Queue: 3 jobs
Job 1
Amino acid sequence: HSPYSVLFGHEPKIGLLSTSLHPSIFDSISTEEELENQLGLPASDSNTVQQVESDCETEEEGLANDDEHINNDQSDPHSDTDHEHSISSFNDRIQRTNEVRQDAKEGQKRQAEEFLQNTSKKQKLANLNVGDNVLVPVPDVDRGPTDARNILAVIMGTAHDKYKLGTQNGVLLGYYSYHQVCKAPGLPTLFIHDVQNDEPKSLREIARLQSVTGGQGLLKCDCKGGCKTNRCKCKQANMLCNSRCHHSATCGNK
């Protein structure tokens, strides 16, 4: 059995066998018109055929007229004028775009020059010299709630247009530019010889040393010996251990 017969239950019908005609009339049919008569199909209408042919001819004439119209437009001098006008408009647009870009470039350059001039003015207005007292702002994350907002420092030297600063608790780590400090009012009260020339300290460490409450409060220790010696960070800083220290182990500094 073929797959077709397995699927549909019978062998495929080919040709006239697939129609409802009786096989006895197959020998008597020789033309297409006779087959249409046997099947009961209406005969082809000659008017319909003529109408279809007429429609085809009309469509061909329309296409020919369109081609002729296009050729006339191409040879028309007005069409050339319109084409030249469109090219001129495009060139004008390119020229305006280039002018806008040039203006933007000049404006950006002018703004950069003004910025450099303002920067140089600020540098001149700073007018800081070695030995002058300055105020260094302390960020909120580096100080406690009751600590001072600024630290008094003295200019100990300059390098690359930056200042080396010292405080009463030691030298500040790194160099500070002119916009990171401001000149302290009044006469100098801190002098270079008052600065401890030891290892430089960070701004947070200086703020903690000058604080009356222990700084920003993030100091903790991990001691396992009971915090009885100065090896404990808290004891060395004269601070009591807190809940963040040594994971609730035995402590003698509470």
Note: Helices lie at 3-8, 32-39, 46-75, 77-126, 203-210, 233-236.
Job 2
Amino acid sequence: MSRENLTKNKFLNKTQTKEKEKQQQKLQCPSCKADIAEGDKFCADCGASIEGNHCPNCNALTYPGADICEACGEWLLPGKCRFCYSSIKPDDAFCPECGNPAMGIICPKCGTKNFFDFCKKCNTPLSESAQNAIRAAQQNPVLQDFLRLQFEAEKIKAEIEKNSPLPEPIKTPEQLKAEQEKAEKRAILLQIQALKEQNSTKKEVPTPAAKPKPLFSEEDKKRLDAAINRKKELEQKQQELINKLSSAQNQTFETPQQARCFYNANKPASNLMWECNYVHYVHPGPHDCARPDLGGKWIIDYGK
């Protein structure tokens, strides 16, 4: 073999090796999202089976029956409308069945491009199906109770911030007590220092330093404690209502998009995450889940 061919073969082998390594790095377990190597049949971290199809865009493993890739959001059903799954031609600007644009809908509120009935970023309804789903959700008594309690919780939170004798952020009674003790210790140290200075020059007895004024009165403390306890009760009630709402949402859906529309229409608050039933993975919303048609539930995200 000539030197030129040998160099060429080495270059090709090196390129293929890099491409293979790059491809392997993209593979993730569909259950726990851990990195896996090509050819593995089970995930080394969670033991889940990882045999299946791969996304044509990012090469990540995809779930059976999924319409999108959870890793990159790629549509996995070419030739089908992303909203109603009807057949659509490549040159069709709009779906002949549902009338939605083939290139997606731009949210008028936040400007995000969507292929969902609700905006994946701000949950704004974008289609006629979304409006119909909202009207149906407005008849849900559990959802209405949750919204009422949510409004009451926000009102109490505003009252706590307004009536608190302390600057933002609101501090607990334990934190207030610690600050008061710290202020008292500092006053004593200043008094001792003043005594030392006066004794070194004069023999006069110094005037005792005034006791620092409490950072909050007993009445303020009681009012703050009551408001904080009430807010905790409301949060617990909200979680109970979400559980009831989740049980009421156990329905069957023909398509994942139908499920996404339903769950987003019945989203009772903004500080929520969505846990799917398929692999019990917590998503920002059902729009990020590949199989929302198998059900799920909203859970409170206390980090928001």
Note: Confidence is low (pLDDT under 50) at residues 20-25.
Job 3
Amino acid sequence: MAPYTDEINDLRDKMQTAQKTRDMLTLQSVAMKQRMIYEKAGVSMVGMAILPIVQLPVTLGMFFGVKKLCDFPLEQLKHSGVSFLPDLTLADPTGILPVVSAVAMNIQLTLGARDMVTAPHMAHMINFFRVLSLVGIPLMWNLPSGVLVYVISSITAMSIQSVVLRQPAVRRALGIPIVERKHEIKSASFLESIDYAKKWWENKKKEQEDVIPYDLTPVLSGSPNTLTGRFMKLASCIQIASSQAKVVCYGRLLIHLLN
């Protein structure tokens, strides 16, 4: 999809504008153009949606399966045969494995970012996951060593796979398009990501304020004063509200009814 990144980003901007103005014709047109781009690139939107759904249960199943074996504990895991990790059912007393896991995650993020879609927010999302990996160190501190060995080995295998699949000879042999450097994601500093998050939050707040009133008293008062009538009046606001505004709207409706 990298060669079509500019077109997809333009369509995304048009879609956001159409959503704000509630222009249904433009939304349908943009959706059709986006579908045509995916077909031209040979990408199945259904496949893209199904793949994470298939991978997630396997990944989580392996993680919790290994953890269950360590918690049980499986007798063989108590004798790893490695001097610096003699018992895989216990947490690493040195604290090295959680740190290595976080480092491995950051390496994989760097390698995997090269093949991600060049969207404006992707570099900031990568920084967000980098922060999560560091925050996760204390959370992984008390995990059994066997679980962390599994995590590190899995991430290492993924990193090796990413490096191998980036080789032009391998890509040509497997029929995978070669991604030009101009299509790769440009890294962003953490300060830039913080500024981006602030602007995103301000835009979302403004969007909610523009789409739906925070003060629902005028909507919920007046005639008709029946409960059904108030719900009908509120529905007109909810229909044009964004998903975030719907949460605010329903919450304030509940407070109003309870009062």
Note: The chain has three domains: 1-43, 54-192, 212-258.
